[in-house]
Amino acid sequence: MKITYITNLYPPSIIGGAEIVVEKITKKLAKEHEIIVITNNSKNEEKIENKIKFYKIKTNIYPVKNQLTESTILKPLWHAIDLFNINAYKEIKKILKKENPDIIHIHNYKGLSPLAFKAAKDLKIPLVFTAHDYSSICIRANLLNGKGEICENPRIPCKIYNKIQKFLIQDKPDIVTAPSGFVMKQLENAGLFSDARKIVLPNPVETETQPVEKSYDTLDILFVGSLSRHKGPDILIRAFRELENDNLKLHILGKGPDEDELRKLAEGDDRIIFHGFLSGDELMGMYQRANVTVVPSICYDNSPIVIYESLMNSTPVIASRIGGIPELVRDGYNGFLFEPGSVVELSRILKKISEDPSILKGLERNAYESSQKYSIEDHVKRLEEIYRGLL
């Protein structure tokens, strides 16, 4: 098969887990199929890497990878251009006409315009869409308001934006997938993709690893993610500082807009270490060393890659009971769940394991075993079945 992936980011450009998932999938599929990737860039570029043909296209006043650092003054303009980006539409359609793929699979599309859906359907090519977040129903993609709280009642500009976007993408995909049932439910509640077949397909991980033996001389607690309030790192730091044990260390991996504030919050506690952004073997080494990974999100996380990566390295997960997280973390089986935002409850769990690390033994075994059902091989086979079904 000849398959075109449309994704706003592709490694080494990384903001979240979606682009990591797309890279894993495309590299596996490229061994048996012809793969084309259309992605966003600061300039137009065409090249072939690892048997994958890339079209990197410039579509807006700045590339989507700059979204976190660009001026807030420019962001409304960027979103307005993206919504009606005729140039992006024409460029994507031109590439699709040239390549004439059997299947088009859209992942995160902000920066490549919702008109990418129209470009695919204009050519009557079967279309699959994967919802990695809430971009289809929220301009911020995380269902949070400007205060960083769950958005119960969107502002009028947001409602107008969502209505226009719904008109542009509604009824375009033949099949919609999402890594969690929670996200799929949000799309259904918003009245999106009513005519499409819907499939919950969890994210994939490499399962060729072996169970990891842990040391308990020092309990290493790990946070991996964006240093942004909605991911809850401040909640973790506050909970950690409630504990007086000297045998604890908190490792914070990532970067983000709230890093300076978080460093101030951790000031004076030598047990808290900021490592910056890590990837590849360095990141995997941190998971293997860690005794637990904490995912303290206060937003409706979809299906965080950090949980999959932690489980595959035999590392139990302590996480907020929110969004799609409880579909991956079973309380008392491969980790613990706590009420989102509760410093007290999280601190209590951390205190419990610090006083009796033997609790972790069974959780580690279950963490590794639960990761095995998310193998990249099974994921790719399922995708091939979906694609062939459309053909």
From TrEMBL:
Transferase recorded as keyword: yes
Residues covered by the Glycosyl transferase family domain: 212-369
InterPro entries noted in UniProt: Glyco_trans_1, Glyco_trans_4-like_N, Glycosyltransferase_grp1
GO molecular function annotations of the record: glycosyltransferase activity
Keywords: Transferase
All residue ranges annotated as the Glycosyltransferase subfamily 4-like N-terminal domain in the record: 15-208
UniProt key word Nucleotidyltransferase: no
Record protein name field: Glycosyltransferase family 4 protein
Originating organism: Methanothermobacter thermautotrophicus (Methanobacterium thermoformicicum)
